[in-house]
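Case 355 in the screening queue. Each case pairs one protein sequence with one candidate compound; here the compound is flavin-adenine dinucleotide. For every case the pipeline is the same: read the inputs, emit a complex structure as tokens, and attach any notable structural observations.

Predict complex for case 355.
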Amino acid sequence: MLLREQVSLGPYTTFGIGGPASWFVEATDEASVVEAVEFARARSLPLFVLGGGSNLLVADEGFPGVVVHIAMKGVEQDGAVFRAAAGENWDGFVSRAVERGYGGIECLAGIPGTVGGTPVQNVGAYGQEVSGTITAVRVLDLKHLRSSELPAAVCGFAYRRSIFNSTRQGQFIVTQVSFRLRKDAFPAISYGDLQRHFAGRAERPSLEETAAAVREIRHSKGMLLVEGEPDCRSAGSFFKNPVVAEAVYDAIASKAKGSVPRYAAMTRGFVKIPAAWLVEQAGFAKGFVLGAAGISSRHALALINRGGAKAADIVALRDRIVAAVEARFGIRLDPEPVWVGGGREASGAAAAGHL
Ligand SMILES: Cc1cc2nc3c(=O)[nH]c(=O)nc-3n(C[C@H](O)[C@H](O)[C@H](O)COP(=O)(O)OP(=O)(O)OC[C@H]3O[C@@H](n4cnc5c(N)ncnc54)[C@H](O)[C@@H]3O)c2cc1C
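Case 355 output:
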């Protein structure tokens, strides 16, 4: 086990924000994950599992415990079943699958982070979610310090949700994810942005063209990490799209000037309202600035570190937006990134929770 003390967490996150971890373990295999857990337990320290750091906001005080950085690598293929180690880069995995002619995750191209991070919030974009292809998740169960394979059916996948970020939060460390992909599948291009991208084209795009289109669309919205672009210091979408009853939607629509956008929700009688629309209508335009924090110039849903921002700056902007949207629409926005560390935002003994 490679153990280091007082490691600054900012460089391990896409926000580039955060104080040090008291202890930091680079786990390149399951045995070092177990060792890290035992090390933390022997000292009664909280434990935090770090993937690619693309869905986190780390406290300025840092994390007063052991951070395990998941760095296991390797992808095995058995026909259409791909077993990818949790530390594999997600976008790299998508590229490899698509190049080999396997579909089912092509619309999830360009999402930063690790393979192991994807089941946690059931990563989704442009009409696909990882739950559509995941067959099983291999985990280390921290209750019994034992590895096992959880079939997808028990993972509780829903919109931005699974047992890993809700009912069983903190119980499992994901070490490998199995996907059943589809050989020579037709790419999924039903999402509006993709339909517009390919409008007027006679032949169906290939899987690779679809993944490339997704990356291009993401780039235009500042949702692709590109070195040196200021809009990239973010955790992606900062708020989940609220799912509201049709009656709530109707009430908002009746008062709004112009039409209120909506998407289908998984539950009958409910609809999703784009959080970006609510944020903009509440007075926060793209490019909004509050000290060193701001809103991306290309997407109203991405809060950004404009350079030298502290976690406190992002939290201040978040609070202003949440209060304004609630005052205007009666909807309380739910942040997507996970809060890591001490201070007033921490939830629970593990000092990591939802923002
Ligand atoms: C520019 C940008 C665009 C994005 N676009 C999207 C998008 O379109 N759709 C979407 O769903 N998300 C999106 N995200 C959010 C983020 O990329 C995903 O949620 C990603 O899957 C997080 O993975 P990660 O490895 O970076 O996890 P981290 O950020 O390191 O961790 C996130 C949470 O998962 C837990 N975790 C991570 N790895 C493991 C593991 N192996 N075992 C157990 N728990 C673990 C952590 O403890 C933490 O609670 C975007 C982020 C950015 C910066």
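Case 355 observations:
- Residues 14, 49-56, 70, 86, 111-114, 116-118, 120-121, 123-125, 164, 173-174, 223, 225, 234-236, 338 surround flavin-adenine dinucleotide (CB under 6 Å).
- The CA atoms of residues 189 and 195 lie 6 Å apart.
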